[in-house]
Amino acid sequence: MPAHTPSATGHSSAAARVTPPAWAVLLAACAGQFLVVLDVSVVNVALPSMRTDLGLGETALQWVINAYALTFAGFLLLGGRAADLFGRKRAFLVGLGLFTVASLAGGLAQEPWQLVAARAAQGLGAAVLSPATLTILTTSFPGGAARTRAIGTWTAVGAGGGAAGGLVGGVLTDYLSWRWVLLVNVPVGALVLVAGAVWLAESRAAAGRRLDVPGAVLVTAGVSSLAYGIVQTERHGWAATASLVPLLGGLALLGVFLAVEARTRAPLMPLGLFRIRAVWAANSVMLVCGGGMFAMWYFMSLYLQNVLHFSPVEAGLAFLPHTLSIVLGSKLAPRLMAVFSGKALAMTGGILAVVGYAWQSRMDADGTFAGTVLGPAIVMSLGSGLMMTPLASAATSGAAPSEAGLVAGLVNTSRQIGGALGLTVLTTVAAERIAATEGGSGGSGGGADGPGPVALAAGYAHAFTVSSGIIAAAVVLMAVALPRRRA
After folding, report:
1. Of 104, 316, 340, 362, which has the fewest beta carbons less than 10 angstroms from its beta carbon?
2. How far apart are CA 166 and CA 312, in angstroms?
3. pLDDT score of 343 more than 90
C-alpha cells in the first residue's frame, strides 16, 4: 500500500523528495483521530468525580461537556479550510499541540472555570486536528483500494475511540484520578506530535481560498449565548432579563452569521447548498436528533454512579451494550440500504430510538442494570446506529461530488450543535424536576451532599422522556422532508 503524494496538492519540493512510509502516515493520522474521538466520551464517566473534587454545580458540570462540543462544532469547518490553505501537516501539528496543552491545563485545573476553559481549548484544537487527519489520508494514498483501506482503518479507529472512552475513563478515574482522563492525552499527544513531525509530508490545496474566521466566531458565540440563556431560565424564568438578554443576543449573532455567510467570497457554510432538499432536510434532522440523543451518555453516567452507586469502572463497563449496539446498527445499515430506501431505514431507526428512550425514562431509584439499563440501551442505541448512516448518505446524495466533503462536515456540525443545545435544555428540565421532587418529598433522601437518589432518578428519567419526544419530532421531520430516493 504505497503512499501517494499527487503533485496537484502543491507539495513543496523538499516534501516531494521524501515519501514517508504508508504505515507511518496511517498510524499518525489514526492516532490523532483516536484522541479526538476518545475525548468526547472519556469525560462522561469522570463527571461525578469532577463535581465532587471541584465543587461543580449542575450548570458548570454540563459546560464541561458543552465547552468541548460547541468549540469543536463551531470551528470544525474552519479547521478543514485551514488545513487546505496552510498545509495539512501544519494543521495537524498545531491542532494536536493545542489539544495536548489544553489537556494538561484541564488535568491541572483547580477551579471550575479553569476546567471549562481548558475543555473549550481542547475543542478548538480538535476542530483543527480532526479534518487534517482525514485529508492527510486522502492526499497521501492513491484512489482505489489503498485509499479505501486507509479510510476504513481511520473510521474503525474513530469508532474504537468512542467505544473505549467509557471504559478507559472508568479505569483512570477509579484507579488514579479524574484528572488522568485529561492528563493521559499529554504523553500520547507528545509521541504523536513527534511522529507527525517526522513522518508526515506537507501538502495544501491550490491557493486562492480564504478563511471565514468571522463566520466561525459568530456561529460559536451565537450558539453558546443561546445555551447560556437556556441555562439561566432554570433560575430566573424565561421572561427575566438574565435569560432574555443572552437568548436574544444569541439569535442576533446567528442572524449576523447568516448575513456574513451570504456575502463573503469563501463562506464557512455556503447557503446555496441549502437549496438542495436532501441537504437541508438531513441537516435539520441531524440537528434535532443531536438535541435528543447527545445527552444519553451524560445522564446515564450520572444515573449509574449517583443513583445505582456504580464505581467509575462499573459505569464504563455498563456502557458496553450501548456502544456495541451502535456499532451493530452502523454495520447493518449499509446492507439494509441495499434492500430498503434510506428514508425508510432512517425512520425505522428513529422509531426504535424513540421506544428505547421512552423505555429508559422508566428508571427509578430502585433500578438495576439488568432490569433498568440493559434493554433500553440495546434498543435506543441500535436505532441510533441504523439511523445515522442513511441520514449522512441522504445529505451527500444531493450535492455535487466536489462538495461531498463540505456537506459531510455540515452534517457533523449540525449534530454537534444540536447536541450541545439539547444537553443544555435537558439539563435544565432535569434540574427543575429534581428540585420539584426533592421539595415535594420534604428533602427526604438528600442531605448536605445534594438531592437524594429518588429525586435524581426522577430528574434523569424526565430528561429521557423529553429526549424521546425530541427524537419523535425528528422522525416526523424525516417523513415530511427527506426525499424518497433509494440510496
Report:
1. 362
2. 9
3. no
